[in-house]
Amino acid sequence: MLPFDEDTIVAISTPPGIGGLAVVRISGPLALDTISQYFTSPQELTPRYATYGKLKHADLSEGEFDDCIVTFFKGPHSVTGEDLVEISIHGGAYLQQKLLEVLLRAPGLRAASAGEFTFRSFLSGRIDLSRAEAVADLIHAKDKAAHKNARNQFLGNLRLLVDSMSDKLIHSLTVLEAELDFSDQEIDFSPPQALIDPLSEIKTTAEALLDTYFYGRRLEEGIRVPLVGAPNSGKSSLFNLLLGEERAIVTAQAGTTRDTIEKAIVVAGHSIILVDTAGLRETQSEAELSGVDRSLDEIDNADLVILVHAPDTETSIPDELIHTPQIAVFNKIDLVSDHPRDMDIYLSCATGEGLDLLKKSLYTQVVNMINEGVGGVVLNSERHRDVFVRFRGQIATCLDSIRGELGPEYIASDLRLALDILGEITGKTTPDDILNQIFSGFCVGK
Amino acid sequence: MNVSRESFDVIVVGGGHAGIEAALAASRLGKSTLLITMETKALGRASCNPAIGGLAKGHLVREIDALGGEMAKATDQTGIQFKMLNRSKGRAVWSPRAQIDKKAYSSYMVDVCTNQQGLEIYEGEATSVISSNEGTKITGVMTRAGRAFGCEALILTNGTFLNGLIHIGNESFSAGRIGESASVGITESLVALGFETGRLKTGTPPRIKRDSVDFSKTTIQAGDQQPEPFSFSTRDFDPPNEYCYITNTNEKTHAIINGGLEFSPLFTGVIQGVGPRYCPSIEDKVVRFAEKTSHQLFLEPEWTDANQLYVNGFSSSLPEEVQLNSLRSVPGLEKVEFIRPGYAIEYDFFPPSQLKATMETKRVKGLFFAGQINGTSGYEEAASQGLIAGINACRSIGGSDPFVLERSEAYIGVLIDDLITKDTDEPYRMFTSRAEHRLLLRYDNAHFRLAEKGYRLGLTEKALYEDVENQKRLASKTETYFNSTYIKPEIINGLVETQTTVKESQTLANILKRPGVTVADIQSILPNWVNDLSPALLTLIATNTKYSGYIERERQQVERLSKHQTMSIPDTVDYLSMQAVSFEARQKLDKIRPETIGQASRISGVTPADVSLLIILIKKIVSRETR
Ligand SMILES: Nc1nc2c(ncn2[C@@H]2O[C@H](COP(=O)(O)OP(=O)(O)OP(=O)(O)O)[C@@H](O)[C@H]2O)c(=O)[nH]1
Ligand SMILES: [Mg+2]
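A: This is the predicted complex of the input protein with magnesium ion.
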């Protein structure tokens, strides 16, 4: 938390995972400007009045945020004492997250740190002084939680990775600063151009790390694995077998499953959300039709699909499946003796044969996904992602300055800013850190 | 010299660079001032290298000038070689430096001080401070001769004199500088008042006879052909341009030094004080950077026509014989003769976290410290503190607001803020990298930044202030012209060589922003009224324009460091009981006792979360007290 900072911050302010109404808040000088770029409504935003309208943006799909209520509070008459915008939307974690991501791409906005909204409220005098102790406890607790989290494998690895990036940056900065502060001495200075390679490397790492974000989120929320196929292919049977309990209804009638059912299992230490879906077919039944729609949505949203085939059903592969990793399963091998060739797994829910092979395949897929991270690190928090987006941009600025042959003090200024951004994760780098590097690395002194 | 009275508004102890600025500022602000020095003719004596300014230090000197101090003027009058450092880099880190004639510099200062109205000089040694209210308020100072002087404010600028101990090889003896006695008593009287003290070390190289050097084996280093003065008020500047000479040590030199280490007080542990890493002795360099087979040495004249040179880069406390033998292995110095050997000096200092931003001690009202007594090194750092202490001593007497420069306003602001919030463990020296808003704090805009403040204080002369204001107006007019005047592409392409040809009209400002383009490239299309501006002003304007993006970014960062920075912390706060604040932070805060939240946030080990908590707890305390 940066108590001197007048940035505009944004955060989801409903507890995560609770369905129904969700509230995203923006606080700071840019709050109103930002919302006016996304929000359209027949009415003007009036302080303290809830205004109904829709959110529009290239990155938001049509209709996703049609029913929103935006309330604007003009500072100092808001809980944070600053201009504050509250956006209420319908929908679960996915939509909240998406909105947050889109807002964080707006210039000048940054993800709020733990307790930051509360702290601003306190500073503005909105929280009664008698509750000061409670706020203190809150920040204290958040701090402790952060420490505890740091022991978590992912955060620990992230920390190591960020530290090593930060060390490389400090080294680059040292080269520049030594030349600025000791140019009257006989040191062999390397030109700023020598920093292009190490900085490009850092930028590549930052990009790779950002690429892990989507997956990192999924690790956090659970990897979605729907079972998809024709009616009666045995999806519900397989679902129950994988769960080890009779969760879904199984009947000989095609079209049994209508609504999706989901349940988490743990594979390779990660939470996997298995989703049983309605069988895909053309149908007249309204209930079944909407079940099929939901199945298609699930495929859209899937990380991995288990496509269930059976000898007694005809599977039509939907278009939505083309880009999604999948495991093709041929079920009911107890019924027939010759099997089609192009399947990944052959099994029978009736006898249990081949189930181990499916579990192994699931395990391998999950482990592969994890290894896609950078050095075992995946980004899974919106705040960290926000930091790296800004960091990548700033490193690009540094590279531009070097290529544009600006003076070393300007490049140094760009680098310092990059270090400051990274410092939001690692803690601040001080001028003394740089001077210490200079004194230990160069023989200075006349 | 006769002193006319027993009691003064302000008393300054010590006539070095800090003491002079303090005493001049106080007397110029109309306070009756006494300067106590052991020897009047030693006023302004440069005890180490014969140079003023240099990287980051040159900025300090310019700022002192803008605020009405004396150092820049003295340098312009007595400098014998002027050089702009970092000229190949961007303007923000250009820094002026001058070789001075030490004798002329000192006598210039003697002249100014003895002629200053309201300033009296007492030759003698101050031996203890006199206080009242159980040692919480200063009332005067006692001298060795037994004469006591009363005062409202006392500024101590004792330099390296407090219990000074000089080391040369295995020998050590009490002294303040070579040939001058140490000052004994002040430290003890301050410790009795509860002050914490420590020991630091610094060193100086040998002085050699000029006529014993074979200059044919050295490289000549001259100053700039078109030197720039330090002071804004210096006119018709035409200083001498005397040479310095460069030579290099070699493996033989290093072998001799290594052979003498057993007699080095640094390596045998005799010297306890911590020395500066940026100004190591030659034996330190040889040991710590053993892989380097050669170190550069600069032979600098100490004054015009002097048969005495300063061996910059060869500071040492080895026995004289080892110093001499090793130096004789250096090209050009085969037959070198010493005037005196290098030496190390240990002295008492008072960790500056005991000070407020005004340089007044937190413990004793009316007592101010400035200069090396605060653990700094360098003439320029000392003078800056002296000036600020002098100003604030006067303001504390009149009950005016303290005068404090922010880190974003001046290197002097960075210097003092660093001193009071850091635990210095080596002599502190200014570097440009210490100033986070370096791009705003250029040497060439020091007067734009500070002259108005100096004038309002009553120190900066009216003529200088008006001159600066006039230049500011011209600058903003020209910047507007640059931003609003479009030039056709065919003209641009004929003027500046760029990789890509320009296809559309562009403003003069955007042309200047192109890599490699300087104001000289576009002079032919500028109107006369712009070309008639002084070269210095035109370059300043061009720099503002060229780097406006960076300057704007810095400004925004400064603005974001907003309101809570200046929130003051009551001095009764009990940090140790703040359980929610981390243990390390509690300890540090309790030791340093910052005056503002801004200061607290810059103490190492105090995290942003700690600062947030601190704000909460302090608001609570303040509200309880006002109830
Ligand atoms: N012989 C045999 N029958 C199976 C096997 N797996 C499932 N069945 C039967 O196939 C029928 C349909 O099974 P479900 O699991 O309900 O199929 P579904 O794919 O969920 O069907 P819908 O929900 O209608 O789309 C049931 O009668 C199951 O007992 C198998 O491996 N072998
Ligand atoms: Mg089913």
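Chain B touches chain A through 64 residues (CB under 8 Å). The pocket of magnesium ion (ligand 2) is lined by residues A 235-236, 248, 256-257 (CB under 6 Å).
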